Amino acid sequence: TSFNEIKKKEKNLIVIKTISFTLGFSFVFIALGSTASFIGKFFLVNSNIFRIVAGLIIIFFSLHLIGIIN
């Protein structure tokens, strides 16, 4: 093989690695964004249930703090 063929293969490899990196980077952040969106939607849909549970936990800890529940 000549020097020019080696140079051409090296340039092709750089392009392939650049495209792979860009696609991988994009995939990771698209996946993270989708996951965050799904979790946000889940909390929004179930916010009433979470609010009731949080209230019950606050009441329980308050009763424990004033000594009614040991």
Shape: rod-shaped
Distance between the termini: 83 Å
Helicity level: over 70%
* Run of helices and strands: HH
β-strand percent reads: under 5%
- Largest beta-sheet details: none
Briefly note the structural class of the backbone. Answer: mainly alpha
Computed Rg: 28 Å
* Number of E-state strands: 0
For the residues shown, what is the average pLDDT? 93
Number of helix segments?
2
Report low-confidence residues grouped into runs of 5 or more. Answer: none
In short:
With 70 residues, the protein is mainly alpha-helical. Helix content is 90%, strand content 0%.
Characterize the structure shown.
With 70 residues, the chain is an all-alpha fold. Helix content is 90%, strand content 0%. The protein has two helices and no strands. The protein has helices at 3-45, 47-66. The relative contact order is 0.05. The model has no long low-confidence stretch (mean pLDDT 93).
